[in-house]
Amino acid sequence: MTVEVRRVVVPETFEATLVEARMVTPRVRELIFERVDGKAFSFQSGQWVSLVLPLVDEKDRPLRRSYSIASVPRPGSRFELVVTRVDEGRGSTWLHEMTVGTSLEVKGPQGMFQRAADAGPSLFVATGTGVAPFRGMIHDALAAGGTTPLWVLFGVRAPADALYREEFEALEKTNPRLRFMLSMSRPPDDWAGYRGYVQTHVLDLWSQLSEHGRPEAYVCGVKKMLLEVRQVLKTHGFAERAQLHLESYD
Ligand SMILES: Cc1cc2nc3c(=O)[nH]c(=O)nc-3n(C[C@H](O)[C@H](O)[C@H](O)COP(=O)(O)OP(=O)(O)OC[C@H]3O[C@@H](n4cnc5c(N)ncnc54)[C@H](O)[C@@H]3O)c2cc1C
Q1: pLDDT per position as a tens digit, 112-123
Q2: Which end of the chain has less neighbouring CB within 10 Å, N or C?
Q3: Per-residue pLDDT reduced to its tens digit, 46-103
Q4: In contact, 132 and 69? CB cutoff 8 Å
Q5: What separation in Å is there between the alpha carbon of 49 and the centre of ligand 1?
Q6: Ligand 1, atom 18: closest residue by C-alpha
Q7: What is the pTM of this model?
């Protein structure tokens, strides 16, 4: 009998300073933080951090918000986040106005949303900043080598919202196993790619991926999209629980 022993790692709490920030789409700000203590920031692609903001919640406790680590793992004390400005959202609005040079408390990295090195053909489905954890996962998988297909289906409203598009398209040119597909809900008239919500294309892509082995889906974004993707796959009897990996932002 094999007994799986999972090591429970208690996330660290540390101070980090915002060292660089820029708007990367009309509603998304990229924030680059650096640990104040200069220690290395180590994480597994797919994990997230919790930020303690200088605001309080309805119970007068510090306001905490979680963000996927958008960086590609590399040595050093820096890490990147991408934050969508949510209308009337207190946390995201504060982060969009945070001044470079100021610091806050961070707890992390945390989370189990990860792709195993020996995972099967993989379909990564994201909307908006849900693509953040896939950046590291894709870079890791390409660096590890192999031929297992890595397909990214990314739902955005319009071309300006397509975070990391140039980066994924550049990787796609040199890595035939990577396929990057944008699906736009408000595309320009001449858009020849996918249209509409990602959930309408999942089934077809899953069937195509099945020709390469037993697929796995990694889905990240708001819960409504996650549930619809899961429903589409389940209704057609395709996805066992172990083949679906979901990370909900709300
Ligand atoms: C594990 C985890 C990782 C996350 N990673 C990211 C990330 O990398 N980038 C990011 O922008 N957010 C991420 N979020 C969401 C983030 O924690 C906040 O919920 C978000 O910034 C809204 O906080 P707020 O205080 O501004 O809004 P609130 O007042 O708390 O309002 C919440 C509302 O915002 C909606 N919402 C939450 N996230 C998003 C989003 N990304 N896009 C559109 N609407 C959203 C929710 O549906 C909800 O209606 C993550 C959440 C979790 C649990």
Answers
A1: 999 999 999 999
A2: N
A3: 999 999 999 999 999 999 999 999 999 999 999 999 999 999 999 999 999 999 999 9
A4: yes
A5: 13
A6: 65
A7: 0.95
**Which domains are seen in the chain, by residue range?**
12-110 (2.40.30.10), 122-248 (3.40.50.80)
The separation between CA 197 and the C-alpha centre of its own chain, rounded to angstroms, equals 17
86 lines ligand 1 (CB under 6 A): yes
